[in-house]
Amino acid sequence: MNIKEILSQPEGRRLEFKAELPVHSDLAKIVVAFANDAGGDLYIGVADDPREVVGLDEDKLMTIEEKVSNIIFDCCYPAILPEIKFISVEDKHLIQVTVFRGSTPPYYLKEKGKLQGTFIRVGSTNRLADETLISELERRKRNISFDSEIIPDKPATELNIDSFKAIFKEKTGEEISEQTLKKLDLVKKVQGVEYPTNALILFSDDPLRTSLFHYAKVECARFKGISSEEFIDQKSITTNIATQAEEAYNFVLRHINKGATVEGIYTVSRWEYPVKALREVIRNAVVHRDYSLTGKDVKVAIYDDMVEITSPGLLLPSIDYAAMECRQSDARNKVIAPIFKRLGIIDQWGNGLKLIADEMKEYLNIELRWREVGLSFQVQFVKLDYLKKQERVEQIKQELQQELQQELQQELQQELQKTTLYSEVLRCLMNNILSRQGISNALGQKKVSGQLNKVIQKLIASHLIERTIPDNPNHPAQKFQLTERGRIFLSLLGG
After folding, report:
1. Coil, helix or strand for 213?
2. By C-alpha distance, which of 156, 169, 246 is closest to 199?
3. Between 125 and 491, the higher pLDDT residue
4. Schlafen AlbA-2 domain: which residues (predicted)?
């Protein structure tokens, strides 16, 4: 990416712009936050809102460079060594300060101390880290993870892990022995006693899991419309984490549509969303969430215009969603992730994001969006054509209402007052693609009657249903499906 492309990008996790040299504390906060996260670039001489290359006085570049170096050296701890460059854009002079991901976090402001001076990057902002986040940074420095830490509340032998043993046996063909628990880092010995790690508690059905990790659940909801004001359905998944992802995925499947298209003589089914990508994101939300953050659960929300998955914890510094096609591999939970892989819940390392990117290419009407919301990472699958479709739906509704009031066929007008064969046929096709005989069977009729043939023809003429093989009406494999107009018609009938 060249400099002009960079300067057109919005501020974010790894990018910030300043029209002039920031004051000491502001510059130090930016540098510390970058070092505690994935690193980043600060461009001095570029206004952000509105974006404009204002430039710096050429005679002052050396002075500004020296001030930047001195501020970072004097204000930040441990030592941070940035790369500082002079660059020119549109005959204007800028300073680029590149901060690399630090190897000894947490980094903080000397004068504030660790508890009050540690900052992290959240989106395009620099946020003061609390003790939980500082602990996470300390673990990163020691190359350990929260899920590997022991809980001395109860010996591992007294922990209820029966369902986990059953799942492990089913998925791997192996029994979980004492040796297996040690090998998987699910238990650790302290003074001769085997204690469970946080990971084993999360995989268990023991009351200790409910006590320590009551927030380690997935909240699923199908909302009415495009806001979270009214529920259609909801489910709280509080099982052990080995089963949460699939339960959440199945909830999504129950609340999204599966349509059909015809390719040649074949009818091809297709979900309205890229379900492989959805499943991968849900699985990642469970396996890679930050279990050290109390009071936060994974959320799966389905709206008319999108599916949204929110996972507690910021995106790992080494993972870049903007480069999904590149194989990227990292795990926040270094004990849980390998077990999920053994269970077949997650794919080979580095394949997940590429799988998502590959399937998204087949869904040009769906846009993948991601953002950091507070201390959570959120992924959205958004229907780009939703508003256009809504406008079309309203137009068709108006047309149908006018036709019902005028001349949509006398028989069809009766649908507003009572159930007739017309509505029965439409309802048979609501979630199915059927042949004439299939429709007849669904209606409880052994043979296709002349009346049914008459009804099918009138429904076709009214554009409420359509043939799957329109170019050959008498094809032996001919079937029928609802049109968009037919679905809207049914909705007007309350069907």
Report:
1. coil
2. 156
3. 125
4. 11-129
CATH number, domain with residue 306: 3.30.565.60
Tokens of 64: 């500004």
Across-strand partners of 411?
A: none
CB 481, CB 425: distance < 8 Å: no
Mean pLDDT of 52-75: 95
Range of the domain at 179: 146-212
Most confident of 247-251, 438-442, 476-480: 247-251
Is there a single domain that holds both residue 150 and residue 208?
Answer: yes
351 shares a domain with 232:
yes
Residue 210's pLDDT is 92
In the 8-state DSSP scheme, what is residue 465?
E
pLDDT per position as a tens digit, 335-384: 999 999 999 888 755 577 888 989 999 999 999 999 888 889 999 999 98
The DSSP code sequence of 291-321 is TTSTT--EEEEE-SSEEEEEEESPPPTT--G
- Per the listing, tokens 């043993």 go with 165
**Do the beta carbons of residue 306 and residue 381 sit within 8 Å?**
yes
Round to whole Å and give the CA distance between 271 and 332: 31
pLDDT band at residue 416 under the 50/70/90 scheme = very low
Q: Are residues 241 and 355 in the same domain?
A: yes
Calculate mean pLDDT across residues 19-36: 95
Structure tokens at 40: 């980043």
Judge whether 120 and 36 are in contact, CB under 8 Å: yes
SS3 475: coil
Q: Give the CA distances from residue 205 to residues 150, 200, 367, in Å, rounded to whole numbers and listed in that order.
A: 17, 10, 38
CA 182-335-250 angle, to 5 degrees, is 120
> The tokens of 277 are what?
């990508």
The rounded distance, in Å, linking the Cα atoms of 189 and 349 is 29
- Average pLDDT in the chain: 88
